[in-house]
Design a protein that fits this description.
Length: 144
C-alpha cells in the first residue's frame, strides 16, 4: 500500500545559486519541517539534497531526485537532538561539500559561498514560515 504523503505551505527562496523549497511534510504517521534543495544540473533544475527533520525519524538525502542514487541517512536523536538546527548548520557551513558527496561536483564549484555567510538566514526564515505552530522539527530554530 502506498504511504500517504502531505505537503503544506511550500515556500521557495534562492541563495548562492541554489533554490530551497521549504515545507512541512507528513509521511504516514511521521512528519515535520523539510527542505528540498535544487540546483542547475545539465541545464535543468534538479533536486540534489533534502533534509526531512521529522519528529520520529529525522533524516537527509543525497541526490533524492535520482532514484538510482538516492542515499538516505537517519539522524540519531542522541547525537543530533535538534535536527532543524543541524540541517541549517549543514546548509550554512557545508553545502558545497554535501553537493560533492552527492555527486554534483560542478554544481558545488558554482555555489556562491559568500552568499551563504548571511543569506542562509533566508532559508531559516523560509522554513519557519511554513511550519504549523509548535511543529518545527525537534526544537525551535535558534537565531542566527
Amino acid at each position: 500500500m502506498m504511504e500517504q504523503r502531505e505537503h503544506r505551505g511550500q515556500k521557495k527562496v534562492q541563495v548562492g545559486g541554489l533554490e530551497f523549497v521549504c515545507m512541512h511534510r507528513m509521511a504516514g504517521e511521521d512528519g515535520g519541517a523539510s527542505i528540498e534543495i535544487y540546483g542547475d544540473v545539465d541545464g535543468e533544475p534538479f533536486q540534489v539534497l533534502r533534509f526531512d527533520m521529522f519528529q520520529k525519524g529525522p533524516h537527509f538525502h543525497y541526490a533524492p531526485g535520482d532514484r538510482a542514487r538516492n542515499y538516505q541517512f537517519g539522524l540519531d536523536d542522541k547525537l543530533v537532538p535538534r535536527s532543524v538546527d543541524w540541517a541549517l548548520e549543514q546548509i550554512r557551513d557545508n553545502i558545497s561539500e554535501m553537493l560533492r558527496i552527492a555527486g554534483f561536483k560542478a554544481l558545488a564549484e558554482r555555489v556562491d559561498r559568500k552568499a551563504f555567510e548571511t543569506g542562509w538566514t533566508k532559508v531559516r526564515d523560509c522554513l519557519a514560515s511554513t511550519a504549523p505552530e509548535g511543529m518545527l522539527g525537534k526544537a525551535p530554530v535558534k537565531a542566527g
